[in-house]
Amino acid sequence: MSTEKMYRLAKEMYAEIGVDTEAAMKRVSAIPVSIQCWQGDDVRGFENPSASLTGGIQTTGNYPGRARNLDELRADFEFAAKMIPGRKKISLHATYLDNGGVAVPRDEIEPKHFASWVQWAKERHYGIDFNPTCFSHPLSEDGFTLSHVDPGVRAFWIRHCIASRKIAVAIGRELGETVCTNYWIPDGFKDIPVDRYAARARLADAYDQIFAEPINDAFNLDSVESKLFGIGAESCTIGSHEFYMGCALKHNIMLTLDAGHYHPTEVISDKISSVLLFNPKGILLHVSRPVRWDSDHVVIFDDELKAIALEILRGHFEDRVHIGLDYFDASINRVAAWTIGARNMQKALLYAALEPTEKLKAMEEKGDYTARLAYLEELKSYPFSAVWDYYCENSGVAVRDGWIADVQDYEKNVLIHRQ
User: Fold this and answer.
1) At what angle do helices 70-81 and 334-353 cross, to 10 degrees?
2) Is 148 annotated in the active site?
3) Contact 286, 297 (CB under 8 A)
């Protein structure tokens, strides 16, 4: 049966429970998903591609075809984007600057070093998000950056974050689309510290300086990202959840929720509603797949991914929750990793958009939890896949597994020759 015939049957079934499939697809097509550039080259960047990763950042695997320069990374991203429906942004770290082969200190980076990214994104109708890179640098080797006890080291990282913020504003102004700038640092103690307060006070002062200058939110939205613990920072992470919740509220900026940065029994889908009640600026999500903890596996269409999407769409939070992906797997084809994860994020959003939410809310408000549970379970076997296939076809991307052979050909004809 053709994709269109299957869709027509699915459309009728959903209509019987009050769901407009056309409206659902239109709703999802307007939600941008920010795709992380660092999946394509194992988080190496182009500041110094031979540098080793530090700050608890690790990739595993050595699959052939890693992007070795800007041109290769962009070409790979473009290829993946052809197989991903919906609006797309690319999330850049500061180390992905276009420096023309000339070393630029991180505290001296400028908008001109990302001008080629802006032009490239404009031509392809991508948005851009940004991230200061506070790791893999000689001044971060002892595990501290913005909370460093040395005022000179701390000042360097403050200047880097301020420079990154200015770059983000310039990108947003040029694109005419808001950039989300995320601040994550690796700072923490491997063993039990005596004075956590002093380190956190230094970090708070650093952010006071970074966010001192008012900016136009139409061009850039700042966000701060917490972490439970990190490799080399097992006993105390300076930027804890409580610290960054307070920091976000103090500076009236977003809070970043990363799926892998909490205790293994916690999920970020449960945190979205609580944060949005008290933070007017909203949330930036880093969607990954933790396996026992922050292992950044490729996003799959699992229960938590669906729960995240449902939480966003049930509350009509599309304008307050910004969706970004954050994983890096070097054990499989990197273009396929981008494609799988981003398609699954879009798939989860469409799954959520096809829920008869108002009907379910009415049951809940009446206390009819029996009907609520029954409907939630029956919805799992509704013909969602037929709507997804139709959405992909109408978006001009491959249906079902139709993209896999293209990636295999790209690997054979392009990626394998990078060895």
Assistant:
1) 40
2) no
3) no
Sole residue written with tokens 């979205």? 272
Task: Say how far apart CA 68 and CA 44 lie, in whole Å.
Answer: 9
Q: Which of 117, 120, 184, 403 is catalytic?
A: 184
Task: Render 148-184 in DSSP notation, one character per residue.
Answer: -SSHHHHHHHHHHHHHHHHHHHHHHHHHTSPEEEEE-
Question: Catalytic residue at 93?
Answer: no
Q: What is the CA radius of gyration of the chain?
A: 22
CA–CA distance, 195 with 164 (Å, rounded to integer): 30
The amino acid sitting at 166 is K
Catalytic-residue membership of 208: no
User: Is 286 a catalytic site residue?
Assistant: yes
Among 47, 187, 326, 329, the one annotated catalytic: 326
Residue 294 falls in the annotated catalytic set: yes
Which two structure tokens, joined as six digits, stand for 252?
Answer: 């009236």
What's the pLDDT at 293?
A: 87
Mean pLDDT for each 10-residue chunk of the chain (419 residues)?
A: 94 98 98 98 88 79 95 98 98 97 96 98 98 96 96 98 98 98 97 97 98 97 95 94 98 98 95 98 97 93 98 98 97 98 98 98 98 97 98 97 98 94
Within a 10 A sphere around the Cβ of 62, how many other Cβ atoms?
A: 9
Question: Of 294, 311, 329, 355, which residue is the catalytic one?
Answer: 294
241 is catalytic: no
Catalytic option among 113, 261, 281, 347: 261
Q: Which of 227, 281, 306, 322 is catalytic?
A: 227
Q: Which of 222, 296, 311, 329 is catalytic?
A: 296
Helices (H), 97-220: 115-124, 151-175, 196-210
Q: Are 161 and 183 in contact (CB under 8 A)?
A: yes
pLDDT of res. 48 = 82
CA distance 390 to 2: 10
| Distance from C-alpha of 124 to C-alpha of 194, rounded to nearest angstrom | 51
Estimate to the nearest angstrom the gap between the alpha carbon of 232 and the chain centroid: 24
C-alpha–C-alpha distance, residues 269 and 158, integer Å: 32
Q: Which of 89, 113, 241, 286 is catalytic?
A: 286
Q: What is the pLDDT of residue 266?
A: 95
Type of residue found at 107: D
Among 76, 225, 304, 329, which one carries the catalytic annotation?
Answer: 225
**Does the active-site annotation cover 157?**
no
Position 55 scores a pLDDT of 74
Provide the whole-model pTM.
0.96
Domains recognised in the chain with CATH numbers: 31-355 (3.20.20.150)
- One-letter amino acid for residue 46 of the chain: F
